[in-house]
């Protein structure tokens, strides 16, 4: 895959194909998630992004292909949204305590980390979009994950709250020393810290660093050049090495060279 490390991948997806009633949702997807890296999945509506996350989380069985977890992988998941029964009053504290093996001290710590201690006794049904996302992030933190999976975390969060929420996600990643895999349409917010972007529309259309992918014709065809401008603004020095095949290989803590990698796997 595009980002390689001397560390073993936390999760490997191998030749994943998913069909729903003989309609292909995903075809031959390969992906490695390495420790402490950030991978962002983008793509058009209905392109299979959520299905890919569900396959990785083992919530959706692939029609063919394999999902391999490394020993010791702990996954925290922030879903796109959750359904809260309005007739069932439940406080934030109670909701978090329902998480398996949740300790009171960890709940208080997570609430403080995400600056939502003041919401402890609030009803879940009354939270704003941004507050709810923080509560879901707090819940995902409770089992001290080494991989955090987020499905469109900015959805339902107003524009001013989005940058703040993303800062929190990034801060959480550094605190937990974990990898992040997220679906996001808000590439302008996440790209500065993203190691690899995967653009999927049933298959992998293109993949690479934000800089590389923003120049990919397939990516430009799907998204126009809106992201290219942002990438130019946010361009930062990746410190990767390339192997003999031109793939990026890196050790997350000892990056050494700037990357101008051309993405592969075009459609
Ligand atoms: N359980 C299911 N049964 C049948 N079809 C499904 C099922 N889940 C997803 N699909 C279909 O698979 C395709 C991919 O859906 P998916 O939700 O993964 O796309 P997405 O990229 O996450 O979309 P969006 O950006 O709109 O959230 C869609 O055509 C969807 O209708």
UniProtKB/TrEMBL annotation:
GO biological process: response to zinc ion; zinc ion transport
Superkingdom: Bacteria
NCBIfam families: PRK09544.1
Pfam families assigned: ABC_tran
Key words, A-Z: ATP-binding, Cell membrane, Ion transport, Membrane, Nucleotide-binding, Translocase, Transport, Zinc, Zinc transport
Coiled coil: none
Ranges for domain ABC transporter: 11-226
InterPro entries named among the record's database cross-references: AAA+_ATPase (IPR003593), ABC_transporter-like_ATP-bd (IPR003439), ABC_transporter-like_CS (IPR017871), Metal_Ion_Import_ABC (IPR050153), P-loop_NTPase (IPR027417)
A GO molecular-function descriptor: ATP binding
Name of the protein: Zinc ABC transporter ATP-binding protein ZnuC
Cited SMART domains: AAA
Lineage per the UniProt record: Bacteria, Pseudomonadati, Pseudomonadota, Gammaproteobacteria, Pasteurellales
